[in-house]
Amino acid sequence: MANTSTDQFFKNPVLGHPAGLFVLFFTEMWERFSYYGMRALLVLFLTASLFDEGWAWPREHALALYGTYTSMVYLTPILGGYIADKIIGYRMAVVVGALLMTLGHASMALNAPFALYLGLFLLIAGNGFFKPTMTSIISQMYENHQHKKDGAYTIYYMGVNAGAFLGILLCGYLGEQWGWHWGFGLAGIFMFAGMLQFYFSQDIFGEVGKKPEKTDDEKASLDPSVKLNPFSLLDKAFIVISAVIGLVWIINDPMSKIGDVNVFDFEVGSLSGSNFMILFALAVFLILLVSRIVRYAPIVRDRMIAVSIFAFFTIFFWAAFEQAGGSMTIFANDYTDRVLEGSAGTIFRIANTLITVIPLGVITWVLWMLFKQTFEKYKWANIILGASFVIIWALVLRMLYEQYTAEAPEVPASWFSVLNSLFIIIFAPLFSKLWESKYNPSVAVKYGAGLILLGVGFAVLAYGSSDIPQGAKVAAVSIIWLILAYFFHTMGELCLSPVGLSYVSKLVPGRMIAMMYGVWYLAIAIGNKLAGTTGGMIDTITAEYSLSTFFLLFFFIPGGAGVLIILLHPLLKKLMHGIH
């Protein structure tokens, strides 16, 4: 793409960045609204008693399904990224993905087991198209402005968390106060709004993201950094073997617990059939990855090795961080004192008003800045976006009214997840400025700090739960421990997650960007499944040791990984060949 084709995006910027970035900001915001709104309710709904209109599942079963869902959400982008990259283009992939997710949320709003599983399937498929394409569009928009990429991804990540903030707040409020399926349904409404807003404004991206044209193989091969590396028959066989076994294993885990159907009902030596098969699939995938990396030119090869190392450490981060939707939600629901009386209730009302109205006001201001640049040319997109915000404000005011008129407000268990998004909205601009300043640390230090801060958050929870008796199913500890834990987790996330996306785009040649994002999301998928598996051990570890011991595991493992990657800084610097 010629320089002028990307330079044009910066001629009439919004807050120093192309207006198209903020179209993606709001599109992703509604997608994250739907995803995190539903995620905040899923485990609570599954484990709630029949009296509370839940399904009364054991915690282990609910977390097994939760882990499978969240992991497959990050697996399908590997296929979706390929289809977008080679066949339908990024823009169409966004529309298809958003439509599938809208249908998924609509299905989950029905109170039936089949509808729940169908809804989760549609959400997984939709995410496969949606997730890798959004970041790929940003990568192409900024291809001649590399120095602004970290800031752009951090702003984009602020949009991600603005959606998560609103989704958890409002879907959680409707789900816990009005009924679970009201919350699931609201997620679908705003997913549909996000799809329409993107569809009517997509011309703002110029030629970026359109249906791809065939590549001139001979021309591409002249540049050794992007030389063609077609998949051999053996490569394709390894992909099929590892993918099929991995998918069957992920689905089999909740099936074996919930439905008592175990596809891997055998043993190999001391290993269960399930463990043996997933280790075999992992070994096949690693052989495939190594064999492909060594075929590239030296600089590309080294940079892909660096990406693989970062992806490995990403697994540790998400395996601990995604406890937020599992064991930390259970801790909030069953072990935290959430009924606030007297002055405590007044403080919560005021604080909740401030943390709701101020961020929503900031996001509305960003919306106004976008309106001023784009309303005349993209009227329908802006009307839909504006109408969505009118509905959001109405729901927020209704929620606050009910809290102020309640004698002793009860903090919804899902509310605590809002803190992660709130802290990101507050601190993301500061981190964005830091990454663009002369004090920008190396990526290894950012990763290490992210993992260590994540571990500190779990150390706080371990301390806060230290007085809970061994094997206790309920308790009433102060909410301050969850608030502090989410603060440290958020600081860690800002150091690692948006920066990771940015470095993938910097280190990988543009022709392979969507597929490599798929590999990156594979690492996150593994972490998410591990989060569900380890979170499901909460009852076992609490009964044998204590709840404090359970949380301490998530202090030592990511904390140790953080120290290790900082020590690997010299090696990673060499592998990255000048990319900072």
TrEMBL record:
<keyword id="KW-0472">Membrane</keyword>
<feature type="transmembrane region" description="Helical">
    <location>
        <begin position="413"/>
        <end position="431"/>
    </location>
</feature>
<dbReference type="InterPro" id="IPR018456">
    <property type="entry name" value="PTR2_symporter_CS"/>
</dbReference>
<keyword id="KW-0653">Protein transport</keyword>
<feature type="transmembrane region" description="Helical">
    <location>
        <begin position="181"/>
        <end position="200"/>
    </location>
</feature>
<dbReference type="Pfam" id="PF00854">
    <property type="entry name" value="PTR2"/>
</dbReference>
<dbReference type="InterPro" id="IPR036259">
    <property type="entry name" value="MFS_trans_sf"/>
</dbReference>
<keyword id="KW-1133">Transmembrane helix</keyword>
<feature type="transmembrane region" description="Helical">
    <location>
        <begin position="63"/>
        <end position="83"/>
    </location>
</feature>
<feature type="transmembrane region" description="Helical">
    <location>
        <begin position="347"/>
        <end position="368"/>
    </location>
</feature>
<feature type="transmembrane region" description="Helical">
    <location>
        <begin position="303"/>
        <end position="321"/>
    </location>
</feature>
<feature type="transmembrane region" description="Helical">
    <location>
        <begin position="547"/>
        <end position="568"/>
    </location>
</feature>
<keyword id="KW-1003">Cell membrane</keyword>
<protein>
    <submittedName>
        <fullName>Peptide MFS transporter</fullName>
    </submittedName>
</protein>
<dbReference type="InterPro" id="IPR005279">
    <property type="entry name" value="Dipep/tripep_permease"/>
</dbReference>
<dbReference type="InterPro" id="IPR050171">
    <property type="entry name" value="MFS_Transporters"/>
</dbReference>
<keyword id="KW-0812">Transmembrane</keyword>
<keyword id="KW-0571">Peptide transport</keyword>
<feature type="transmembrane region" description="Helical">
    <location>
        <begin position="233"/>
        <end position="251"/>
    </location>
</feature>
<feature type="transmembrane region" description="Helical">
    <location>
        <begin position="151"/>
        <end position="175"/>
    </location>
</feature>
<feature type="transmembrane region" description="Helical">
    <location>
        <begin position="114"/>
        <end position="130"/>
    </location>
</feature>
<feature type="transmembrane region" description="Helical">
    <location>
        <begin position="475"/>
        <end position="496"/>
    </location>
</feature>
<comment type="similarity">
    <text>Belongs to the major facilitator superfamily. Proton-dependent oligopeptide transporter (POT/PTR) (TC 2.A.17) family.</text>
</comment>
<feature type="transmembrane region" description="Helical">
    <location>
        <begin position="33"/>
        <end position="51"/>
    </location>
</feature>
<keyword id="KW-0813">Transport</keyword>
<feature type="transmembrane region" description="Helical">
    <location>
        <begin position="443"/>
        <end position="463"/>
    </location>
</feature>
<feature type="transmembrane region" description="Helical">
    <location>
        <begin position="271"/>
        <end position="291"/>
    </location>
</feature>
<dbReference type="InterPro" id="IPR000109">
    <property type="entry name" value="POT_fam"/>
</dbReference>
<feature type="transmembrane region" description="Helical">
    <location>
        <begin position="508"/>
        <end position="527"/>
    </location>
</feature>
<feature type="transmembrane region" description="Helical">
    <location>
        <begin position="380"/>
        <end position="401"/>
    </location>
</feature>
